[in-house]
C-alpha cells in the first residue's frame, strides 16, 4: 500500500466531487483457471486500489457522500481456509490500514443497498468487467444484468478520471520503479537475442520476460507480445524459431507490488544487424518518436501530437518513395494509416491502458474534442490536452500488413498518395514499433 493518508485524502476528494448519493466500489474475485480451487493470479480492481489500497479478493467499499461515512464489506478468513493459506489480517486490520472506520460482513451489503434504493438515493457504480462481479452487482441492486452499463454513474467515472489522469509524487515514484525494471528487462532480451538469435523461439523469449520480472519481485503488467510478425499488433508468441534476417518486436512491461505499470516496445534484428531497408524504416519511426519527446508539453492536444507523429512518418516514407503528395493532405485524409494504423499512445498508471474500463470516450474525449471515425486515428485512446503529472506512452510505428495492402490496392484507395508498386517489396517486412513512457512536466516531458 501507499501511505494511509493518501487513500484518506483521495476518498475525501471523491466525496467532494460526487457530493450526493452513495458510492459503491467493488473489488475483484479470483477467477478459476480450470476448476474453482485453481485460479488465475488475483489482480484487484484498479479503482478500488486507487481509493483504498486494499489488495484482497471479494471486498466492497461504500462511501456515503452526504454523511461522510465509509464502510468496508468483507469476511474474515475462516479456519478451514487458514489451514491452507496461513493466518491473514482481519478485516478490521485491513480497514484500519486504509483509514476506513467501519467494517461489516458481506451479507450486510445488500441490506444497506436496498435501504438506499428505498430512500431513492443515487447509487454510483462503474460497470464491472469481471462477469462474476457483474452478476454480483445485478443481484445486489436488483437490476437486469444487461442494463448495468446504461445505469452506471458518469459522475463517478468523471470524478475518478479527473483524479487519476494526473499522478502525485508517490505514483510517479511507483511508475518510475516499474519503468526502470521494464527497461532493464528489454535490454536483457535484446542481449539474449544478439547472443542466441535463431536458436531461440518466440515462446522462449516470452518465458525469459516472465522469469526476469518474477526474479525482480514484480508482476507482468500484461501478457508479453513477442513476435517476428510485428505487423500483427497483439500477436502472441509461437513455438517458431526466430528467423535470421527478421525483426523481433517485443512489447512487454512490469507492474510494481502496488500495481503501477510500465510499458515498452523494442524492435531488434534477430541477426544483430539491420538491413539497409530495415534501418531506413527504423530511423523514420525513431525520428517521429523523438520529435514527440521534444514537443509534448502541458496544454498541447495529444490528438495534435498524434497527427504530428503521423506527419513525420509520412515525410520519412516519402523520402524513400513509399508515399507521395502533400503531407498535410495525407494526414488529413488518413492515407498514412496504411503504415501507422493505431494511436500514438495511451495513458499509463494503475492500468497499463489507464482507466480503459471507464470507456475511453468518457475520459479521453469530450464534446469539443471528438474521437475520429477514420480508420487509424479512431484507435487513438486519448485526444485531450496534456497536463502536468500525466504519464503517457509514446509509441509510433510503421507496419506492412499484407491484407490491408491487398484490400486498399484492390479498392484503388489513396492511389495518388501510396506507391503500391514499390510497396510490394515490403510485403513480408513485418513491422517496427518503438515505445517509451513519458511524464508530462511543467515545461515539456521527461522520458521515464
Descriptors for this entry?
single chain; 448 residues; alpha+beta; five-stranded mixed beta sheet; three-stranded antiparallel beta sheet; 16 helices; 17 strands
Report on this structure.
It is built from 16 helices and 17 strands. With 448 residues, the protein is α+β, with helices and mostly antiparallel strands. A five-stranded mixed beta sheet has the order 6-5-4-1-7. 40% of the residues lie in helices and 14% in strands.
Give the structure's gist in a few sentences:
This protein has 448 residues and is of the alpha+beta class. It is built from 16 helices and 17 strands. Strand 2 and strand 3 form a beta hairpin.
Helix content: 25-40%
Low-confidence stretches: none
DSSP summary, beta strand count: 17
* H/I helix tally: 16
Shape: globular
Distance between the termini: 22 Å
Q: Rounded to an integer, what's the Rg over CA atoms? A: 24 Å
- Largest β-sheet summary: 5 strands, mixed
- Give the assembly state of these chains: single chain
Name the average pLDDT: 96
Name the structural class: alpha+beta
Strand fraction equals 5-15%
Strand order of the main beta sheet, please? 6-5-4-1-7
